[in-house]
Amino acid sequence: MSTAQKSLLVQGFEVVIGFETHAQLSTQSKIFSRAPTAFGAEPNTQACPVDLALPGTLPVMNVGAVERAIKLGLALGSHIAERSVFARKNYFYPDLPKGYQISQFEIPVVQGGEVSFFLGDEKKTVRLVRAHLEEDAGKSLHEDFVGMSGIDLNRAGTPLLEIVTEPDMRSSAEAVAYAKELHKIVTWIGICDGNMQEGSFRCDANVSVRKPGEPLGTRREIKNLNSFKFMQQAMDYEIRWQIEQIEDGNEIQQATVLFNPDTGETRAMRTKEDAADYRYFPDPDLPPLVIGRDWVEQVKSEMPELPRVMAARFEVDYGLSEYDATQLTQSVALASYFEAATKVCNQPKLVSNWLGGEVSRRLNQDELSIEVCPVKHDQLGLLVSRIADGTLSNNAAKQVFDVLWAEGDITQGNIIRVNMNETMGAVDRVDAIIEAKGLKQMNDTGALEKIVLDVIAANPKNVDEFKAGNAKALNALVGQIMKASAGKANPAQVNELLKKALA
Ligand code: ADP
Ligand code: MG
């Protein structure tokens, strides 16, 4: 076992996690009916006879849902089944009027594939088992004030893609990073709006622990995690709880559990059903789903450049590290911003450093996204070229950046892919601010040389110390020179001139 793996053990236990994610597909209408899928409508205003399971109705497959499944398969390198089958998953619940959910069981539409991402600077790959199409159920609304529960069937029949991983993850942090990557991909390719508060992307975390080298332990499945923060908290609680149980000599019972964000605890909801309990069988109302290769090719030709392909291109075209390229391709918006800013200054590494540093720090602080970044891509591009050509020190550039940030407009959107060449920011503000604040770095060697000689003449003690071998004495002199130049001298140049003068 490698040291990296060893260090992951929690109190001598290895954590094993597999994820099942429900991504709500962004179709206008439901998976087997024409009722709309819009979120937040008055209860039961978006449920048609098919969704209500009225006698005599039949499901009709929504092509848009299938197309989105194909897109996911293409994005994750999966096999897209030429023929897959819909099955009935039978159970009773008030929000399920048919008495069964239409899902896929033995032959899902998307098979295999993988998701790769960075955990810190370590690259991880999680294998997928499958992704299958299914319909969502309705919602029970518990109206305590009248002591009754109501059923809202607006959500019944909403298209879902359930994406299932192998039990490949070995820590809660890795599982959260996987979920973030998957979220990035489904929104990037536009098959899901990714809105977690509205339940468009919800994860079930299957968690078990074992002593290293032992077979897989018994898992408990934490249902419906719809925030990355809760995901992490729920898994961490669950891991500690399972280890405690085992150390107390108890056996883990397979179960479905819910996370309570208020207490930070997970609690068993029911003992886990097995597949057999659902009496799956092929749905006689729906023919097998046949996907011709020409359709797959058609969808492929319409796919956007994928994040990992774009990242590989960034490495080659811009000479960036794999890590930087991956960071820059976290969203379409960030990647477009980077490319547009780089176009202005031709300094990809510097732009990348600014985006990963000051820009993201300020965005986080102000809780803004790059789409509405107050400093526009062309302004950052010009700012970076002023650093590259020696006009600005890093410190001075930060001051200009702060002014741009403060006066920037966050209601004005930033570039998106289609209008990347369009100028969005008042780019001449960059030079105007440099001028107004007198931030231009001193590049006049003659003037700087004079300051250097003056400072040497005025500080004989430091000069003697330096000549006696005290390297630190040089810093005192550099400090004096920077001060005399009102901070405008280029520190590297100062060092060079000083050493020359003292040699
Ligand atoms: P089911 O369909 O009954 O939920 P699956 O066998 O399809 O069961 O597994 C569901 C999820 O649980 C998958 O993501 C899988 O990787 C994960 N899983 C299976 N066994 C374990 C285990 N021992 N520990 C953690 N996760 C597991
Ligand atoms: Mg399951």
What distinguishing features does this structure have?
10-stranded mixed beta sheet; 3-stranded antiparallel beta sheet; elongated; Arc Repressor Mutant, subunit A; binds magnesium ion
Topology:
Elements: H1 3-6, E1 14-24, H2 63-75, E2 79-80, E3 83-84, E4 86-90, E5 100-104, E6 110-111, E7 114-119, E8 122-135, E9 139-143, E10 148-152, E11 159-165, H3 172-188, E12 201-210, E13 220-225, H4 228-247, E14 255-260, E15 265-271, E16 281-282, E17 289-290, H5 293-301, H6 307-318, H7 322-328, H8 332-345, H9 348-365, H10 377-388, H11 394-407, H12 428-436, H13 445-458, H14 460-467, H15 472-484, H16 491-502
Parallel strand pairs: 13-14
Antiparallel strand pairs: 1-11, 1-12, 2-6, 3-17, 4-5, 4-16, 6-8, 7-8, 8-11, 9-10, 12-13, 14-15
Helix pairs in contact: 3-4, 6-7, 8-9, 8-10, 10-11, 11-12, 13-15, 13-16, 14-15, 15-16
